Amino acid sequence: MAETRLHCDVLVAGAGPAGIAAAIAARRAGKQVVVVDDNPHPGGQIWRGSMSGAHSTSAAARKWLQRFRASGAELLSSTRIVTAPGANTVLAEHEGNAIHIHYDALVLATGARELLLPFPGWTLPGVMGAGGLQAMAKAGLPLRGKRVVVAGTGPLLLAVAAAFVHEGATVPGVFDQASRENITAFAASLLTRPSLLMQGAGYLATIKSWRYRQGWWPLCVHGEATLQSVVMTNGSDTVEIACDYLACGFHLVPNIELGALLHCRIQNGAIIANEHQQTSVANVFTAGEAAGIAGLPQALVEGEIAGAYAAGAGNQVRHLLRRRTALRKVAARMNHAYRLRPELRALPQADTLICRCEDVSWQQLQGFSGMRSAKIHTRCGMGPCQGRICGAAMQFLAGWEADTHRPPLYPVQLSTLLPLAAHDTTHLEESI
Amino acid sequence: MDFDSVVVGAGIVGSACAAELARAGMKVALVDIADPGLGATAAGMGHIVVMDDSPAQLALTHYSRQLWDALETSLTPACEYRRTGTLWIAADEEEMQEVLRKRALYTDNGVAAEAITADRLYELEPSLRRGMSGGLLVPDDGVVYAPAVARVLAMQACDAGAVPITGKVTAVGDGRVQLEGGAELRTRRIVVAAGEWSTRLLPDLPIRRRKGHLAITDRYPGMVRHQLVELGYLKSAHSISGDSVAFNIQPRSTGQLLIGSSRQYGAEDSGVDFALMQRMLARATEYMPALADLSIIRMWTGFRAATPNKLPLIGPWTADETVFLATGHEGLGITTSLATAALLSSYFAGRDSTIPIAPYLPANAEAAHA
Amino acid sequence: MPDSVTIRIDGQTVRVPHGTSVAAAIMMNGGFCRTSVQGEPRSAVCGMGICFECRAAVNGVAQQRTCQITCVDEMQVVTHG
Fold first, then answer.
1. Which of the four pLDDT bands, split at 50, 70 and 90, describes residue A428?
2. Domain tally, chain A
3. Could you tell me the domains of chain C?
4. ipTM for the assembly
5. Distances (CA, A) of A55 to A47, A65, B141
């Protein structure tokens, strides 16, 4: 056990695109920058490198990562912020060691997670998030020869399906719950952004466009100990498809927990930011998905703005402010096109588990007025994921607001929370 | 007149009172801003324990623990009631003397208690740090998941005819309970059972908020079997008025460990005080070094309603003949909730209760305070 | 750098490519990560340390998120905790 104390001008939470852009901008303004990220490598989920090379990172990603490495920002990987023990201070954990980081300004670039929605059988091994299976594949899970059904919603589905094909998987179908009309209208609105359309066309060529079906969603999965098949529906027809994996994600949920712990104002599930990416707390800024799901280009622009303003050098990025607004409009159209259909609220059956940590069923949650009461009385959301999965699901299913966020942000080894002197004392007593 | 009694607060104390009064045939309303058991009832530990700070405290906790035994058959599995026993730990020979004193007192009062040698202590709880002197086992103490009990008691109250009302109480007095939004309930008796929040309705109550911190681990079944409390808890830590911490571990039936405890006056902010949390966890690892490797899932705080003489206020409030108190239980509200309801019900019926109510009457607390 | 590492999962020796996460190693070996509160088998879902379904004991420390841990030689993994 060891304890480290650091001070920096600008602390960036998250080393995805937004965090990387923020760190580079703050370094450019001459500030001392520390970036904390809980993954082993920088790049966030989207730029996460893979072992096999099948998920080759784009030239743009390589350029950003290269600039980041050259920027002089200090990166703390596999490091997780667990709480905010005092003013302008966070406590992070790295391999069981405590790191206290004091900052003058903070950029929250904590990204997003997938929205996972419950349906009968969704707890069977083999049912995963869409990005979840992609992350596992990047971390060495072999997909060659596996049958992978991709379902859920959002532009991410095509990208991950194409990646699975490149990994050697068979993808019998990609099913987006959004209607064909909505998706077509969104695609048409991108005519001014041909690069995005080209990217989408490339994915479709890889997976074969006839396998991409809109207006379909999962009804249930079958299997005893592991997944055997998934039943998809479009509301009138159903089709059962044998598969080894169901990669199913219903778009994204901003990771707002650190912002909430720091008392940043939250609205519609995202951290509120002004045009300078400043939150309701004066020296705390935010960028990327944490401030609202908006995609990669937006994350980079916001990151640069947030980093510059956090460094007191906002004048360097004034040219970006209009771009930010324009991109937000694209994001709004995307979020509208992929809005969730109400039929998804009818998927859980009485015995379908909602809280996976504590095995709390849909039936057990009936009759409660909100998350707090249900949590206390059913244990829903009391497990180690701290309601990140079931809380987001219940927000969609029942309109329940998340319960108050309590520290630690993630489960943490108790020793990380001890004062340094106590470690010494413990060891001393042990050795006597 | 709408009701015979309106109980303000559906924590474990208020829910117990509502159940008892409704069963006695009264027309009862149970008012809370939220569902039952979500305030201090949910924030605390749920330790059913006999304590001996004073003869009156010993009498109340002992009597109430007997009522828990009687309630056991009507509790649901969600209440997680288990007679784990309390193991009071003596860290040194001085505390072993306290074990002997306490054992004699408990035994004289009909409370089973057994002095434990160091060897036996490690048989019972192998994870404790070596070098302890021994302990006192009180085998009939237990643990419970208090919010679930509050819910059961509130349901019992409703089954007996009580009316649950959701609303924020803004004022009480003169036979009226005012709710936010303008509604008013009229009643012969108002029972204020709102914990530390009671002082917002009755600012002259001799109650101070005493903040506590708790932390809970992931599941480690079998690691701890009894509720473990340091004996220093009595002699030093919590008897002084400043901030204090003590070793206090509770095994939940899930295999999770609830780690306490702290006491703090004058802290108004409900956030976790990290420095105090650090002290509390450090104290815990002094007694049980293996805790250092466990995963902490959640940390939180709550506010106890503390009185100067460490006894709850049960009975008529001197300033208003329609107002009655069932508050001020500090850290013993879970244990003494059932006795509180029994005493109040007997008082309303004009009957003698199993133990005298006198030590807990607000008038007597005021006299002692003056 | 050697291109594979050897770990033990529930006492069984498993060889995986360098850089493989513990969760991926468990799943490619045909196993599950944990047993749920009601006794169901569970494995990784989110792949990014959020969902806690991939918990297992690694080198004697229980309840670790195996999707966030990279396999290294001689690592001891115990599943079904």
1. very low
2. 3
3. 4-78 (3.10.20.440)
4. 0.96
5. 9, 16, 59
